[in-house]
């Protein structure tokens, strides 16, 4: 199932103590690291769902989709979705080693998106800056975007996933742009996580 298992969640939430010391610095400064992230919205079906890359978009309740074109023993060990946050430039990319990388951006509809491998194409009107990670007192790293909060939008009104992740840019996400055609169906959530070590080759 696509929801992170309880044991995996506990290990993710406590992984900060297991992260290499050199990468984790004093509170208030952010390690140069990739992060795995979970959605936080208590008493909702998305609580503790991991943010997963699939088909160029970020989802809750959909499995991570990766591809590695080389021999298995040469592929990086990562299996789950992780993000590289450049906290100086407020940009972000996928934690993928494919040449050219895979940049994270908000497409013109508000959907959190990433570039395809071997392509730098980003639709005009997209937002590439504004991502930031802050370490909070609970030792978790919170991801935010300066233009608006995270929304998880369901495929329809049935209350089931998978939920497509949007940023509500300036509070102006449009009904027509969400899968169920009603922004009211979407759930706001916070995003928290911890540094992770292993990359993937590319997200597919
Ligand atoms: C709602 O979406 C889910 C997931 O795509 C699908 O399985 C289900 O059949 C849909 N329900 C309705 C009422 O359209």
TrEMBL record:
Q: Which keywords describe this protein according to UniProt? A: Signal
Q: Which residues form the signal peptide?
A: 1-18
Extract the InterPro entries matched here: PhiA_domain (IPR052820)
Signal as UniProt keyword: yes
Name assigned to this protein: IgE-binding protein
Q: What is the lineage of its organism?
A: Eukaryota, Fungi, Dikarya, Ascomycota, Pezizomycotina
């Amino acid at each position: 199932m696509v929801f992170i298992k309880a044991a995996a969640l506990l290990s993710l939430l406590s992984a900060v103590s297991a992260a290499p010391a050199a990468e984790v610095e004093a509170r208030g400064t952010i390690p140069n690291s990739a992060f795995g992230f979970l959605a936080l919205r208590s008493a909702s079906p998305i609580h503790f769902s991991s943010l997963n890359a699939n088909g160029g978009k970020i989802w809750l309740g959909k499995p991570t989709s990766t591809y590695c074109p080389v021999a298995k023993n040469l592929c990086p060990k990562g299996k789950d979705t992780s993000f590289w946050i450049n906290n100086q430039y407020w940009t972000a990319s996928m934690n993928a080693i494919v040449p050219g990388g895979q940049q994270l951006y908000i497409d013109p509809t508000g959907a959190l998106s990433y570039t395809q491998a071997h392509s730098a194409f980003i639709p005009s009107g997209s937002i590439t800056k504004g991502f930031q990670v802050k370490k909070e007192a609970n030792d978790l790293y919170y991801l935010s975007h300066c233009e608006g909060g995270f929304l998880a939008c369901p495929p329809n009104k049935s209350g089931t996933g998978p939920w497509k992740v949007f940023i509500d840019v300036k509070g102006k996400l449009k009904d027509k742009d969400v899968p169920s055609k009603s922004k009211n169906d979407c759930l706001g959530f916070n995003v928290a996580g911890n540094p992770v070590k292993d990359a993937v080759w590319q997200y597919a």
